[in-house]
Amino acid sequence: MRQHDDRAHAPTGLRTSPTGRVPQWVLDESVGRTSPAEAWRAWTPAQPPVRRTRKRRTWTGIGGALVVVAIVASAAVAVELLPGLEATATDRTAPTAGIEAAGGPLGTPLAPPPDGGTHQFAQLQDDGVTPIAYDPCRPVHYVVRPDNEPVGGDLLITDAVAQISAITGLQFVDDGATDEPPSDQRVPFQPERYGDRWAPVLVTWDTVAEQPDLAAEVAGLAGSLAVSSGEGPGVYVTGLVELDAAQFTEILSRPGGQAVARAIVLHEFAHLVGLDHVDDPTQLMYPTTSAVLDFAAGDLTGLSRLGAGGCVPAV
Ligand SMILES: [Zn+2]
Could you tell me which CATH number the domain at 14-29+50-83+104-306 has? Predict the structure, then answer.
C-alpha cells in the first residue's frame, strides 16, 4: 500500500491519504464515569470495576469511490469524502465490490424481547434512526492473533462469536490464526495478507506495551469501520477486538472470573457489531463490569436490529 509511505509528513504522526488528509473516524470517546459500587459487588467486592470501553480509532487506506463514515459524537454522524484515488489493479484501496455477497440474508436475527430495553448504536445512517451494521448477506470473517492468549481465551472468543451470531443472525467464519499485530492505524484492505476482500475482523490479546489504551482498568477495546459507496448506506466491513491479555489472565484466576471474562468478551463483540454504551447498569453494554454477566433485554433488542441491516453489495 504505497499510499501510506508519506506518513512522515503528517503533522499528527498519523498515516494519511496521498493528499495528506487524515482519514479518521471516531467510534466514541472513552466513557469516564465510574461504576456505582452496587453494580459490581456481586462478583468481586475486593476488586475495582473493570472498564469495558472503546477508543478513538483511526483507519487508513480508504479512498476512491468509497466513503469513510465517521461518527463525531455519540449521535451526530458526519461523512468525510476522501479525495479521489485512482483505483487500479495494482494500487487499490478497496476490494472488488460484493465479494461473497448472497442474494439475501444468510441468517435470521432473534426476535427482540417484546418490551425492548435500553440500547444505543455506535453509528447511524443518514436518517438518524437506522443503525449502521454489518452486511447480513455475506459472512463476517475473523482472525485471531493467538500471542499472549490466556488459557481458555480461545473458547471465550468462540463462545462470544456464537452468541452474537445466534442473536443477530450474522454468520461468522473463523479464518484461523494470524500474525497481524493490533494497530491504531489498521489498513482495512490488505490484499498481500488476506487477498481481494476486506481484511477480516482482527481479534488480539494485547500487552499494555503494544496498546497503552488498555490502561489499568480497561480490559478491552472494539469497534468496526463503516464505509459507503457514494450515496449508499454505511456498512461495516471490518473491525477490531483488542483484549488485555494480562487482565484476562488475572480475571480468569479469580473465583467466578470465568463468567466475568465471558461477559467482557461478549460486551466487546457487541461493540464490534455496532452497539454503543448505555447509561443503564442493568444492561451488559454498561461501560464497566457489573453483576450483569449476559445480554439483557436492551442489549438483545439492539443486537437484533444490528442483524437486520440491509445487503450492501456495492462495497
Ligand atoms: Zn464498552
Answer: 3.40.390.10
pTM: 0.79
- Domain boundaries along the sequence of the chain: 14-29+50-83+104-306
Query: Could you tell me which of 167, 251, 239, 150 has the C-alpha nearest to residue 199?
Result: 239
Number of Cβ within 10 Å of residue 91's Cβ equals 11
Per-residue pLDDT of 86-127, as tens digits, reads 333 345 789 999 999 999 999 999 999 999 999 999 999 999
Nearest to 216 by CA among 224, 208, 225, 206: 208
Contact by Cβ (8 Å): 222, 269: yes
The enclosing H or E element of 237 equals strand 235-244
CA of 251 to the centre of ligand 1 (A): 17
276 C-alpha vs ligand 1 centroid, how far in Å?
7
Question: Which three cell numbers, joined as nine digits, stand for 66?
Answer: 468509497
- Cα of 280 vs centre of ligand 1, distance in Å, is 13
